[in-house]
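Box S2. Input/output pair 1.
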Amino acid sequence: MNRRALSLLLLTLLSAWACPVVAAPIDAPRAARLKGALGEIKAPAATVRFIDVDQGDATLISIDGKHVLIDSGPPKAADGLVRDLRAWGVTQIDLLINTHAHADHIGGAAKLIEAIPVKAALDPGVIHPSSAYKKMLKALEDHQIPVRQARAGREIKIGSARLKVLAPKDPLFTGTRSDHNANSVVTRLDVGGVRFLFMGDAEAETEERLISDGEDIKALVLKVAHHGSGYATHEPFIGAVTPRVGVISCGISNNYGHPNPGTIARLESHGVAVFQTQLDGTTTIQTDGVKIAIQIEPKAIDPKSQWQIDPNIATAEALERLPTVGAKLAAKIVAHRQAHGPFKSVEALGAVPGVSAKRLGRMAPHLKIGAGGEMEGMEGVVSATPRADGRLNLNTASLEQLKGLPGIGEKTAAQIIAARPLSGPSDVLRIKGIGEKKWAKIAPKVSFE
């Protein structure tokens, strides 16, 4: 582990989850936010691991020798997930919870089921046409794993703790921006006086229903919904949960703009200590029912590979992540390339007002003209090369590319990105601002690969 990154280490744990925890230095901002919540955990009652599966979700709950896995990450992370589970001594999953059918949450399920015995599964029962969902259903059937429907009110005893399903609730949501997200399985784990709230990809509608129904959603630890998307984790909801810790699971190489800066700002304005798997790696929280202990596993990031982006296709949000670049300068870079055409070299950015030689020197190691690849490492940045027939892939296109489609402005383009993955026309038609007429115009120009 990178020694400099270790300064972020909150608490040092021994390799086995049931071992004692020893306090270690903590970075000042998060230490201040967590004052009173952290403590020495000599006999942990529960361990919750928010697993780094890149752009996706997977959370392991371990209590009294029982293991519950909430989601199984994207297909490409399946081998790593199985490796990690085995390294942590998991020989059986007592309950597999699929929050919803999107591939970044259930894509690893089929391989997981083949590799590690699963006793039972919990699923919202909202069908999805994706191959990942079909593979998961087949694996469950082949291994004769009983599948129970997830509905609000169901309670599951895990050793000395309880897991309560808070959503979805009948009648299920229909006609929302994303019905699969809106009907995500939401659960609350109670371990003594410490609570964890797991939100799946639930969005505004789910939050509003939980509040209006009077559900007890107060929790010390919040698994932030939808990878920190701007479509979730709104002010009233944060106020109702009153979390001290927020954990966001997303990948450093994601093109969805996750996490949304507004979401981070809202959480931090409420005094929440925010952890992100793309920066902090797998984040482990242990509790004895009174206090919590946290361990992070920061990944070494090579700024010359993973963090290089192409300034000719990067969104303003992605450009803001470059050293010394804020929102205003990012907007100037985008405006300059739109007015004068693509930058022919990294040095050409020196023509942008506000980009001094010194500033360009700080930015240059993170820039590459024609970075290429499916994703070069930052939110909103993709090469998204059109297919041979000229169609644009709606699941990988950048904001600027989407804005080039008939009738698609910046707001609608951002909504398309937030709604990904899109599996077909029905998903697109749920996006606000895209009706049948507009879809008819863009349909010949796009694909869903």
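Box S3. Input/output pair 2.
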Amino acid sequence: MTISLCRFCDAPLTITFVDLGMSPLSNAFIKAEDVSTMEQFYPLHAYVCDRCFLVQLEEFESPSHIFSDYAYFSSYSTSWLEHCERYVDSTISLLGLSATSLVVEIASNDGYLLQYFEKRNIPILGIEPAANVAKVAQERGIPTVVAFFGVALAKALSRQGTRPDLIVANNVLAHVPNINDFVAGIKILLGDHGTATFEFPHLLKLIEFNQFDTMYHEHFSYFSLLTVVDIFAHHGLLVYDVDEIPTHGGSLRIFVTHEGAQAVSGRVQALIDRERSSGLGRIETYATFGSRVSATKRALLSFLIEEKNAGKRIVGYGAAAKGTTLLNYCGVRTDFLDFIVDLNPYKQGRFLPGCHIPIVGPEAIGSARPDYLLILPWNIKDEVREQLSFARAWGARFVVPIPRVEVIG
């Protein structure tokens, strides 16, 4: 058996973090005409490096395949858009950005964030590898380069005089299989006195709150601040500040610049100390996570079996990547969920990968009048409950599966 190597430090990967079995690509939604054809399943087996503590999946599919025709459009979540606009206002103030500045966003999706900089007359440039998503941004007037980011693109842009005052990279660090090439590219592209901000789900929260469903093949790595500081330092970059933010069940926003360009906030060391006290510097913490995941699977299946045996009707809400992981790991199909509702028309009329549960528009809820709505993107459960408040008229209740199965009104 070939042993994989850590994508940051090249140490052999021998310690399992969690093994979620075989699963399809989380956003490979099935068209109706293809529902009877064979799908590709891959091991969803996460390892932890016992040298640098980077949690990671093996690379089975290339990013060019995963993101060539991507189904995730950031603009369909109102809470996420509100989060982004707050970020734009605070960052303009913090960094003193103006009409003479340049903001570059990596993995800019459909222009969901850059639109707010543009409204404030700050020059922008998006970099987005998924052509179908980039096209939406371009049609909205957001200048977008369709490419994967790394050293080669950074050098090309830098030669053209592109040296941004701010680089934004929200929820992209985890999507990068070659983390060293990506971070080296940041070093090349970032202006001499510029700042790069990165948002990513916090590994500490993933462990504390049992968020195993945030693991899927599109996410190659899962980060603690402890590890990410070492990764950036290896490439001559300094993590000089950090914010803990509530998105995606608990994320970090780090502020990065060239070494020596900024003093380091006390918040950085304070959070590293808290991670260490929580066990993120001990391999034993990682090795026991899998048993908690198995217990969650049993609890969800027990609930679904009991309610279905009682004649209850259950539907899912949100054809999120989280849902693909959760439902495939638990073996949930149309014997438990009649369908899944999603606001994104790109997903409607298709089927969830692996499970083959049909995805429909929100109008189906009123027709079906289900007894329970299983919220798959649990990180926006409050937004979903508000959107679907009309379902309370017939007594429908909401089910949140993570960190534990919970039924709420």
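Caption for Box S3: The mean pLDDT is 94. The first strand starts at residue 15 and ends at 23.
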